[in-house]
Amino acid sequence: MAPRTPMGSGRFSGGVLLLWVLLGTRLSPVVAEVEGFGQDARTSPPVTLAMFNRTEQLVEEMYTNLTQKCWDIFVEMMRNVTASELCEWKVISRPYSLLQACLEDLADHLHYGYPNALAEQYIFQSHHRYFHNCTLEHQVYFDPPEDVLLAMIIAPICLIPFLVTLVIWRSKDGKAQP
Cβ(73)–Cβ(102) under 8 Å? Predict the structure, then answer.
């Protein structure tokens, strides 16, 4: 096995990664100024579809920018993995899990639906770029043939009425049970 560059203590949490991504980008709050409405409780600013679309577009743009940082961190972590280790789950589980957690945490933080098309694209991209040559070395289990499966389903179904009949028949005996 080839020597591997150390990847840290293994205690790097997804929360720290999310914090780093959020602080690494310049997020500025969107301030909406509404003029011409008094302090009267009966009046409120008109809610238009354009405001929702703009907010939705801003959230989508922020999510797109932040997920690119998640991807960049994943790529940087995968540089420490040698080609012979790309299919070893013990080695790739940390970077892969952090990518998934980063994508999901950002979506949760921005109230953006997860799973979503962009996150799915990054996951597929990671599989295509790094794991496309990985094959399963252990035996893959398949469904049994239909005749065996049918026997396994029908046998208990047929056995239940027989057992119910047996219990009822034995309980009608009238003799005291010891």
Answer: yes
Q: What distance lies between CA 25 and its chain's CA centroid? A: 24
CA 114 to chain centre: 8
User: Would you state the structure tokens that stand for residue 88, as one six-digit string?
Assistant: 């070893």
- pLDDT by 10-residue block (mean), the chain, 178 residues: 46 49 48 41 49 78 94 95 89 94 94 92 94 74 88 94 91 66
Looking at this protein, which amino acid is placed at residue 75? V
Cα 68 from chain centroid (whole Å): 17
Q: Which residue has the tokens 């027989």?
A: 162
The CA distance from 73 to 128, in Å, is: 17
Containing 109, the helix (H) or strand (E) segment is: helix 89-109
